[in-house]
Amino acid sequence: MISKKFKDAIKLASRPQYKIAWEAGLNPTTLSQIVTGYVRPKYGDPRVLRVGEILGLEESECFVNINQSLSQRC
User: Fold this and answer.
1) Which of 15, 46, 51, 70: CA 20 to 30 A from 1?
2) Can you count the helices (H) and strands (E) in the chain?
3) What's the domain range around 19?
4) In which band, very low, low, confident or very high, does the pLDDT at 74 lie, cut at 50, 70 and 90?
5) What is the value of pTM for the model shown?
6) In the beta sheet, which residues pair with residue 63?
7) 73 in helix, strand or coil?
8) How many folded domains does the chain comprise?
């Protein structure tokens, strides 16, 4: 699951989401589907990592740790 920080970084970027997608080698629709949760990439997905790199995010900032996510629900 991608993190809120990843989603926020895309929304707050100085360039439009479609340009970020192109720079990462993705179809803009694919990035939109990842951000909205329609597509749920696994931890370490290279598509998300490329976007994160463009946005200046580390791998750990792009994804939610599954164990951390579950503990927050309790």
Assistant:
1) 15
2) 6, 0
3) 4-73
4) very low
5) 0.84
6) 2
7) helix
8) 1
| DSSP run (H or E) holding 31 | helix 28-36
Q: Which residue has the higher pLDDT, 41 or 66?
A: 41
Looking up tokens 């990035």, which residue turns up?
31
**Rounded CA gap, 71 and 30, in Å?**
29
Q: Which residues pair with 2 in a beta bridge?
A: 63
- Comparing CA positions, the residue from 69, 12, 65 lying closest to residue 35 is 12
Return the CATH number at 49.
1.10.260.40
| pLDDT tens readout for residues 33-59 | 999 999 999 999 999 999 999 999 999
Q: How confident is the model at residue 66 (pLDDT cuts 50, 70, 90)?
A: low
Question: What are residue 63's phi and psi, to 5 degrees?
Answer: -125, 155
